[in-house]
Task: structure prediction
Amino acid sequence: MTMGSDFVQLSLTPLLTGCLAAIACALPGNFLILRRQALAGDAISHVVLPGIILAFLVTGSLETGAMLAGAAAAALVAVVLIELIRRIGRIEPGAAMGVVFTGLFAAGVLLLEQSNTAGVHLDVEHALYGNLESLIWLSAQDWSSLLDPAALADLPPELLRMAATAAVIVLLTILFWRPLKLSTFDEGYAAAIGLPVTAISLGLVMTAALAAVAAFDAVGSIIVIAMFICPPATARLMTDSLARQVGWSVVFAASAATIGYLLAGYGPGLLGSDHAVSAAGMIATVAGLQLAAACCLAPRRRRIGAAREG
Result:
């Protein structure tokens, strides 16, 4: 095989899947950051444990479909509980997330210990790191396979699932842009003009849950958590415009996924090592480095510093 053929077969689909997962998480992450609900992504990524265990108890299978169904159900329960506790209890979003996160995670551990699933191999690799490196496209021969229907039919299902999820989230963001913007920056005004702010808030967190669950099996919770927070927070330091912030977040998410994956696969070889490193870990590291650089160099950061000195 040529170098191009190797890339198409071994690296193209995981690279695209990582980019789509990063973008799908970054888009709702922008609004979660502005609403001070950034930890919602972290909570959703962890409360899937009881859902996965219940799915196994019901189906007796560790197949991807059953696990994703259980994770989706747990994420939906978490979203509803967070909003109920926040609205009814009138407490801070972070406190509501903390209550739900610890409660559901504890329920998952209890289920794990009290059922016969403790001996089942629900491995940390897929839950934490995902299986990004294994998403190879065996039917691909070279770049011409992109136009071959037979080869395209054998694309990893994770790529198709993430493409569909990213497309849905982009469409929802466009359709509900104005209500999201108004309810995010001035919830009182949004309610006064008749917008259903509670439903909008619930819909936003459910969209985040959709992104997290879809990305869970392919890329793992490390990338999900990092992409909900790092690209939007980095973009926030670049501009005061919401539209430009969302655009920047997509750029940072896609570049972190691309650079991180390439560094994980090819970086150690350039240093003389025969071993690759975790793609999920490297992608999250690059996203963190982007945020660190923005904290020091971004235009908005410099303006804030100048205002404080004045």
Residues 304-310 have pLDDT under 50 and may be disordered. Residues 197-236 form the longest helix (40 residues).
